[in-house]
């Protein structure tokens, strides 16, 4: 038995009860259904698209970030080295001998690619690597650049080693995916697709979870595999799309999707996909993220606040009173300069300098923006 097969056996044994692995439902034979997922009818693509070169940052912030509305961005990753290096051949060439996290285990990329080619699993193992800057994988960091629209990230004021996990390199064969979920701590996310196609389904935060499952499917546990949800529940949601305020689309290579905080979303890969995603805290989701961070990551939150205390004690003090932290300054494309954030005006007129701090920290403590640009 090769170590690779041995590893697979271990992963399957570990997940036997949890994940309905294997090919019980023979989805690998459902070619027609897979084709429909890859090429849906036009109505099943109702997300808005904007080319980032046609608008300034204000437009995106006002229309989508502030309005908490998903959008598909084009023109945001055209010049990334990733577009050459993250093909199947590229991954083999540049990362074949590097290890990546697959179902909690470390697997060589070359073995994972072999697995992707051969698997008949209903819900194949997904490669989800969060430590992009470690163990020889650090080339990944130079393969992409955080799009300008998402550069300023308030968690970026603390070292990467301390902040909650925030970026993932994601590889998955056809039939893999992420079942319906909300992202951690109320953060928003962008997800850039380099290879293949991703079918996305999204619901606003105020839609209760029960609504995404037809009543006859009592066991929601079965649906922590994306493929089962997309096959059994998604058609029901299509019928109730209006009431559920459902947004759906098929993302193509080179497109970057924006997922506002707390929106429910599920992803299905109808073919082999390679993507990178980052979660972030901005002016628009800050209040929510801070409240959740305080509740769910109390110790980290203290440290986060300390950094802010250090930068601007008066403001941090005020922030404690108000139970939210002010944001500092934002780079404004149209004004070509730094501007204070509105919410701050009542707290302090001085320079908060959060971003300066993030930008000047050491490489091990660099912000998401500086580490990947
Ligand atoms: O499978 C995907 O690409 C979606 C990833 C995602 O939603 C997440 O990491 O939270
Ligand atoms: Fe997500």
Quick summary:
Keywords: Chromatin regulator, Dioxygenase, Iron, Metal-binding, Nucleus, Oxidoreductase, Receptor, Transcription, Transcription regulation. One of its GO terms (molecular function) is histone H4R3 demethylase activity. This protein has helices at residues 3-19, 31-38, 57-65, 82-85, 88-95, 109-118, 139-143, 226-239, 241-244, 286-296, 298-311, 313-322, 354-360, 368-372, and strands spanning 49-51, 71-74, 99-102, 105-108, 127-129, 167-172, 177-181, 188-195, 198-203, 247-251, 256-259, 264-268, 273-280, 329-332, 337-340.
What would you note in describing this structure?
It is a single chain. By secondary structure, the chain is α+β, with helices and mostly antiparallel strands. The protein contains 14 helices and 15 strands. The protein has 2 domains: 3-280, Cupin (Jelly Rolls); 297-361, no CATH class. The chain has helices at 3-19, 31-38, 57-65, 82-85, 88-95, 109-118, 139-143, 226-239, 241-244, 286-296, 298-311, 313-322, 354-360, 368-372, and strands spanning 49-51, 71-74, 99-102, 105-108, 127-129, 167-172, 177-181, 188-195, 198-203, 247-251, 256-259, 264-268, 273-280, 329-332, 337-340. It has a 7-stranded mixed beta sheet with strand order 1-2-11-8-13-6-5, with no helix packed on it. Strands 7-12-9-10 form a 4-stranded antiparallel beta sheet, covered by helices on one side. Strands 3-4 form a two-stranded antiparallel sheet. The protein is globular, with a radius of gyration of 21 Å. The model is unreliable at 322-331 and 339-373 (pLDDT under 50). Bound molecules: 2-oxoglutaric acid and fe (ii) ion (FE2). This is Phosphatidylserine receptor. It holds the Pfam family JmjC. Keywords: Chromatin regulator, Dioxygenase, Iron, Metal-binding, Nucleus, Oxidoreductase, Receptor, Transcription, Transcription regulation.
């Amino acid at each position: 038995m090769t170590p690779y097969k041995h590893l697979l056996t271990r992963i399957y044994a570990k997940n036997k009860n949890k994940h309905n692995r294997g090919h019980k439902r023979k989805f690998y034979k459902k070619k027609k259904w897979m084709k429909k997922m890859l090429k849906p009818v036009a109505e099943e693509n109702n997300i808005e698209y904007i080319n980032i070169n046609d608008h300034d940052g204000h437009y995106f912030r006002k229309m989508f970030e502030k309005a908490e509305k998903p959008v598909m961005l084009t023109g945001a990753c055209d010049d990334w080295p990733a577009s050459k290096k993250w093909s199947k051949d590229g991954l083999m060439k540049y990362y074949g001998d590097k290890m990546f996290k697959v179902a909690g285990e470390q697997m060589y990329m070359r073995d994972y690619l072999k697995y992707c080619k051969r698997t008949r699993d209903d819900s194949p193992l997904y490669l989800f690597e969060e430590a992009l800057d470690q163990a020889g994988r650090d080339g990944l960091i130079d393969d992409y650049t955080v799009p300008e629209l998402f550069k300023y990230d308030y968690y970026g004021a603390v070292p990467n080693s301390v902040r909650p996990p925030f970026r993932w390199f994601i590889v998955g064969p056809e039939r893999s995916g992420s079942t319906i979920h909300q992202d951690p701590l109320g953060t928003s996310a962008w997800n850039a697709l380099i290879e293949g196609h991703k079918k996305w389904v999204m619901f606003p935060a105020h839609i209760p979870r029960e609504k995404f499952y037809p009543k006859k499917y009592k066991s929601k546990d079965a649906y922590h595999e994306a493929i089962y949800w997309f096959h059994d529940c998604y058609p029901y949601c299509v019928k109730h799309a209006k009431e559920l305020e459902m947004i759906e689309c098929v993302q193509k290579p080179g497109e970057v999707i924006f997922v506002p905080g707390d929106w429910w979303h599920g992803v299905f890969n109808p073919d082999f996909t390679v993507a990178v995603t980052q979660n972030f805290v901005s002016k628009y989701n800050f209040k929510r993220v801070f409240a959740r961070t305080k509740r769910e990551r109390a110790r980290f939150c203290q440290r986060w606040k300390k950094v802010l205390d250090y930068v601007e004690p008066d403001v941090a003090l005020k922030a404690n009173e108000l139970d939210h932290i002010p944001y500092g300054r934002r780079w404004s494309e149209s004004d070509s300069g730094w501007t204070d954030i509105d919410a701050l005006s009542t707290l302090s007129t001085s320079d908060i300098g959060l971003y300066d701090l993030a930008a000047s920290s050491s490489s091990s403590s660099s912000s998401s923006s500086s580490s990947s640009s």
